[in-house]
Write a structure and sequence with these properties.
The complex is a heterodimer.
Chain A lengths: L1 H15 L1 H40 L16 H8 L2 H32 L6 H13 L3 H10 L6 H8 L14 H11 L2 H11 L4 H9 L4 H29 L3 H6 L14 H10 L4 H29 L9
Helix pairs in contact in A: 4-8, 4-9, 4-11, 4-13, 5-9, 9-11, 11-14, 13-14
Chain B lengths: L2 H47 L2 H5 L13 H9 L2 H32 L5 H11 L4 H14 L7 H4 L7 H12 L3 H9 L4 H12 L1 H17 L2 H6 L8 H12 L3 H37 L1
Helix pairs in contact in B: 1-14, 3-14, 4-8, 4-11, 5-8, 11-14, 13-14
The chains are: A mainly alpha, B mainly alpha.
């Protein structure tokens, strides 16, 4: 309705000063481009250009200094057939993403629901839970190397109180990835804050009505809370998948400058690519790898987008 | 009082009691969870003031027996951390300025000026969020090395002056809430778009801009990959790189490592406690636009 009124008003003003309006609009158009120019230039120089260069280079044996010969699909063929570490890195990354993304999403939703129960001190709890999410970088990785230290670390000390002998974590190939996932779960508060913001937008009257109808806590969660926050879950999933596939820094810092941990258990896709690019200067090959990663992320995002209408509820939808 | 209304009050009372019980349970869970979340931070501090002998003791002590605060001074002196600190401050300051200026400027174009292709271009802005940074990492490195910018801060600072998708999105979202009438009125008074942007929109959008500033601060302060790629000269190291090198030198001297980590994380923690309302504001804007 409102847009109709706006349109009408716009049409009326157009009639009134049609000749002057044109020049104003043209001038506005130019202004628009001036304002977005920094982004546009940045997009061309820092995104589009580099991507085109990277796409072309992925079909060459580029090594920065001397050669850049077109070698067709050889990089891709080598990746799939001769590079065992490529498959290891892909497997490690899929393992990490497949476990950390659902766990952090579920954890964040549950935490947000708990915080939204109107308990006293909610703001304090919110601050505490969110704190780890703002901490990142080498300091945090060092902290977790200490926490997970088999002898002097906090985690195994606490486990020993319950009579459990903790694993060697970063020294045991079976436990390195779970260790990194635990570290990731510590910062679950970032997603929590997003869900909490969305939960606070859910009208209280919906819950009151459901309570009157005798819905229990679980039913209220399942039929009111969950549908209302599905758009945020969707957004969170899309960005977490993209972020998860780019896991790199923690593996680099926590494994002696990118050596990949015991039995290559922390050689993630990007770590392998980084080593190919900056240790053996196999740039063409590394760029080919980056395109495979891009395609994987793109396919997952498209699947996410295609599945969205089945479960994501947007306000104004006809209830099914 | 009739029987019916009596039943009704007891029904509501039982609901009240149940609510109180469930709230107590939730509070207990949240307190336990808080302890779990905070214990690593405490552990970092506790370890940082212990002696190496106490760290090696089994079982480890939760509260240090002796508090060696001089560990902090020794850590700071063990590597040129003061230099790293100034390097990091310089980069961070430039990145924050770049992000605030560029994103608030670009967002104004997308939010308040009508021009051909605006919607298509904004869709492109959003689409760039889907591009993993690693796809452009190697070409960026090659580009900067060809123009001789390796070992300078330019590759770390300059990109922030060209805006970034998420920040443009965040500020645009805020600008959209500013009534168009305000801008029309200013235009009638003869104000240019630059004037409207700098004198009307920026002051109004302070919360969103503060959010962008704080997130940029965090990003630049914690950036490890950028300096790792572009900085080789150890006089140009940032705190993150310095800490990584420090780790290599000290191996398992956890008291010094934890003292160094805590010192590097401290500014982020302080900023978080002072400005947490802006972190939350940013989240509200993001969540609000998705719902």
């Amino acid at each position: 309705m409102q847009t109709e009124i706006h349109k009408e008003a716009g049409a009326r003003s157009k009639v009134r000063k049609s000749s002057k309006r044109m020049t104003l609009e043209q001038k506005d158009g130019l202004n628009g481009y001036i304002f977005i120019a920094p982004w546009l230039i940045g997009f061309l120089i820092l995104t589009a250009g580099p991507m085109l260069f990277s796409l072309y280079s992925s079909f060459t044996n580029y090594d920065v200094t001397s050669r850049m010969d077109f070698i067709g699909l050889k990089n891709y063929v080598r990746m799939f057939t001769q590079d065992d570490l490529f498959w290891v890195s892909l497997g490690n990354t899929l393992y990490y993403v497949a476990i950390s993304v659902p766990l952090t999403t579920i954890g964040a939703v549950l935490l947000a629901v708990l915080l939204n129960q109107g308990v006293p001190g909610m703001r304090l709890f919110r601050t505490i839970y969110y704190l780890p999410a703002v901490l990142s970088g080498v300091g945090v990785y060092l902290l977790w190397m200490q926490l997970l230290n088999p002898d002097s670390g906090l985690v195994n000390t606490v486990l020993s109180w319950f009579g459990i002998t903790g694993p060697a974590w970063l020294f045991d190939p079976n436990w390195t990835k779970p260790a990194l996932i635990f570290m990731k779960l510590w910062s679950v508060g970032g997603g929590m804050l997003l869900y909490l913001a969305s939960l606070q937008g859910v009208s209280k009257s919906l819950y009151e009505a459901a309570e009157m109808d005798g819905a229990n806590t679980f039913q209220r969660f399942r039929h009111i809370t969950l549908p209302m926050i599905t758009p945020v879950i969707f957004f969170d999933l899309v960005t977490s998948f993209i972020g998860g596939f780019q896991v790199f820094q923690e593996a680099y810092v926590m494994t002696q400058s990118g050596t990949g941990g015991p039995a290559n258990s922390l050689v993630f896709f990007n770590l392998h690519m980084f080593n190919k690019a900056f240790k053996s200067f196999d740039m063409g090959y590394a760029m080919a790898m980056s395109w495979i990663l891009f395609i994987i992320v793109l396919i997952l995002t498209v699947i996410n987008l295609k599945l969205a209408p089945r479960w994501v509820h947007y306000e104004g939808d006809v209830p099914k | 009082m009739s029987v019916a209304s009596k039943q009704k009050t007891s029904y509501f009372e039982s609901v009240k009691v149940r609510k109180r019980i469930s709230q107590t349970i939730v509070t207990i869970i949240l307190i336990l969870g808080s302890l779990l979340i905070l214990s690593p931070v405490w552990w970092m501090f506790a370890t940082s003031v212990k002696s190496m002998g106490e760290i090696m003791q089994f079982p480890p002590t939760f509260i240090p027996k002796e508090w060696h605060f001089k560990n902090y001074i020794e850590t700071w002196k063990a590597a040129p951390f003061t230099r790293y600190l100034f390097n990091t401050l310089l980069i961070t300051l430039c990145v924050v300025i770049g992000n605030v200026l560029s994103n608030s400027f670009i967002a104004y174009g997308f939010a308040k000026i009508r021009f051909k292709g605006r919607n298509v271009l904004f869709a492109v802005v959003l689409a760039t969020m889907m591009i993993p940074g690693f796809v452009t990492m190697i070409p960026h490195y090659i580009m900067y090395s060809k123009i001789g910018w390796l070992n300078t801060y330019l590759p770390l600072i300059l990109p922030s002056f060209f805006g970034s998708a998420f920040n443009i999105f965040l500020i645009r979202q805020f600008y959209l809430g500013v009534p168009n009438e305000l801008i029309e009125a200013a235009k009638i008074d003869g104000a240019s778009h630059v004037y409207i942007w700098s004198r009307i929109m920026i002051p109004l959008a302070k919360p969103a801009i503060a959010t962008v500033a704080i997130f940029s601060f965090n990003g630049a302060w914690n950036d490890f990959l950028g300096p790792l790629l572009y900085i080789n000269d150890d006089t140009l190291y940032t705190l993150q790189l310095g800490l990584q090198v420090f780790k290599g030198q000290l191996d398992t001297q956890w008291n010094y490592l934890m003292a160094g980590s805590l010192l590097v994380l401290l500014p982020v923690i302080i900023i978080f406690f002072i400005f947490q309302k802006y972190f939350i504001e940013g989240m509200n804007l993001t969540a609000g636009s998705k719902g």
